[in-house]
Amino acid sequence: MKSQPTLYKMHNAFKCIIVEAQRRKLCEYNPYDDFKIKRGQSRPPVYLMESEVRKIMDFSPSIDRLQKVKDLFIFQCYTGLAYADMMNFRRQSVVEIEGRKAISSNRKKTEQTAPN
Fold this sequence. Notes:
It is built from 4 helices and 2 strands, in the order ααααββ. The chain is mainly alpha-helical and 116 residues long. The protein folds into 3 domains: 30 residues, no CATH class; 34 residues, no CATH class; 29 residues, no CATH class. 1% of the residues are buried.
């Protein structure tokens, strides 16, 4: 079952298609004129406890590919990088600011520089 925010986005996209169909005279009636879709609330995020992250770190998969997945996931846990940003991460993105190492790169989603 889809969450309410997901359904809202889907209906919003479909509503745009119907409006365009009306504009092209392919559709006479817009059913969205009769009702409104509620945006709804997203569920609160579920966070990993430090002990759970430790269990993942201590796990030793027997398949190399799973070891890489585990390493990348742990890297995300400690850096807060989104998946797309992690996949674009390069060593050149690590800079030193006031004696501390930091990641300096643009977010893929927004193309804005992440705050340091």
